[in-house]
Amino acid sequence: MFDNFDLMVDAMGQGLWVTIWVTTVSFIVALIIGALLAMMHVSPAPPARWVATAYTGLFKNVPLLAILFILYFGFPKIGIVLPSWQWAIIGLGTYTAAFVGETLRSGINSIDLGQAEAARSIGLTFGQSLRHIILPQAFRTVIPPLGSLLTALVKNSSLVLVIGVPELSAQAQRLINDNQDRFDLWAVILGVAACYLIVNLPISYFIRRAERRAEFAR
Amino acid sequence: MSRSPKSSVLFDALGPRGQARARNASIGSGIVFAALLALAAVQLADQGFFEQSRWVNPLDILIIENAWLPALMSTLKAAVLGSIGALLLGVIVGMGRVSRFKAIRGVASVYVQFFRAMPLLLLIWIPFTIDGAFGATLSMGLDAEGRRLTFLVLGLAVYNGAVLAEILRSGINALPPGQAMAGHAIGLRHGQTMRLVVLPQAVRNMLPAVLAQLVILLKDTALGYVITYPDLLHDAETIGRNYADSFLQVLIIAAFVYFVLAWGLSKIVTLVERKTSRKVAKGAAKVAPSIPLEAGAPGTSAKP
Lengths: 218, 304
Hints:
The structure holds two protein chains of two kinds.
Chain A: H1 5-41, H2 46-61, H3 64-74, H4 84-109, H5 113-121, H6 126-156, H7 168-178, H8 182-217
Helix pairs in contact in A: 1-2, 1-4, 1-7, 1-8, 2-4, 3-4, 4-6, 5-6, 6-8, 7-8
Chain B: H1 16-46, H2 52-56, H3 61-97, H4 102-117, H5 120-133, H6 144-174, H7 177-185, H8 190-220, H9 232-242, H10 247-279
Helix pairs in contact in B: 3-4, 3-6, 3-8, 3-9, 4-6, 5-6, 6-8, 7-8, 8-10, 9-10
C-alpha cells in the first residue's frame, strides 16, 4: 500500500489546480454574459428582452451534460473544432450565465421603486441615485446568491471530465480505476472529498457572513 | 417584473423623445438579432445541418419504440425514485437541523455541509465503482441495470436530500418565532407544534423552492451517463453512433426532450408559486432574501 502516495498527491494537486482554474475563468465568462443578459432583460427594446428570455429558458432547462456533449461531440460535425478545455469553459460559462442573469435581474428588481423615487426627489441626478442608492443595495442582495452560484460552478466543473479535461474528479476517477488496493481507494476518496471541501466550505462561509451583514444593514 | 418601458429602479419613465429612441433601438436590435440568426442558419445549412434525412433517420418509428421511449422511461423512473428518496431524506435531515438536541443538530449539519460541497457526479460514480470493486456487496441480487439505477437514485437522493433539508430549514427559520410560541402556549407538545403549526406553514412557503429543486434533479438524471445508466442522454449517444451523419441532430433532439420535460415542470412550479403566494397571509412568513439553492438555481427570489 501507498508505494505511490507521492504520485497520488501529485495527480490530485494537478487536478485541483485545473478545477480552480476552469472554475475561475468560466465564472468570469458567466459574470460578463450574465450582466449583459440582465441588461437585456430590463431593456426598453422588446427584441433584446426576447433574446434574453429565450437564452435563459434554453440554458436553464437543458442538462449541462447535454450542453457539453453538443459542444464537444456535436459541433465538430458542423466544422467547429476547439480543444476540450475551451469547450469546457464555453459550456460552463454560458450555462452559468443564464443563472447569473436571473440573479442580477431579481437583485435589481428587489429594490423598492420608492428608493429610486426618494433619491430623485431629494435632488440626486439619475447617475447619482444609481451610484449611491440603487446599486449598493442591489449589490448587497446579489452577493450571497452569486456565491452559491460559484460553489455550484465548482461542483459542476466536475462534469467536464466526460469531455476529457483532467480536473479533480477526472484525476480521482483515474486513480481509483488504476488502484485496486482497498487502502489506496479510501485514500483517494478521502483526498478528493477533502479537496472539494477546501474549495467550497470557505465560499459558503463567506456567503453566510455576507448574508448576515445584509440582514443587519437593512 | 416590469415588461413595459415604464418607470423602474433603473429607468425613469420615458418621455416622447425617449420613447422614439426606444422604438428605434428595438427596431435596430431586432434587425441585428435577426441578421445574426440568419447568418448562423446560412452557415449551418452550408454544413448540411438542415438536411431532412439527418433529422428523420434517427426518428424512425422503430428507433422511437426501441430506443427513445425506453430511454425516456428510464430517465423518468430515475427522476421519480430520486425525488421520493430526496424528499424523505430532506424532511428527516431538515427536521434534524432544527432539532432540540445539539447532537442531532450537529450530525444533520455535517451531513448538509458535506454533501452540498460534493459534486453529484462523484456521489454517483464513487459508490458505484467501490461497490463493484468490493464485489457488489451493497447491490446483491440485482441485475446490471438495477444496480445502475440503484446507485443513480442513491446519489440523487443523498445530494438533493441535503439541498432540500436546507430549503426546509430556511422555511422553518423564516417563520415568525411567535408561531411556535403560540403553539406551546396553547399546550401543544414540541412534536405537535412542529407537526401541526410549524411544518405545514414552512412546507407551503418553501413549496416553489422545493419543486424548483426537483426540476434540477430531473436534469441531473443525465449524470447517470457516467455509470452507463441507459437514460436519455446515454441512449442518444448510442443512437448517434449508429447514425454518424446525424450525431449532432440526435443530441439536439435529446436536449429538446429534456427541455420540454424541465420547462413543463417549471411551468407547474410557477403556477404553484402563484397559488401559494395568494394563500399566505400578508406580513406573515416572509422568506429570507436569498435561499441558498444549489446546482445553480437562484431563480426563486422572494421579494423582501
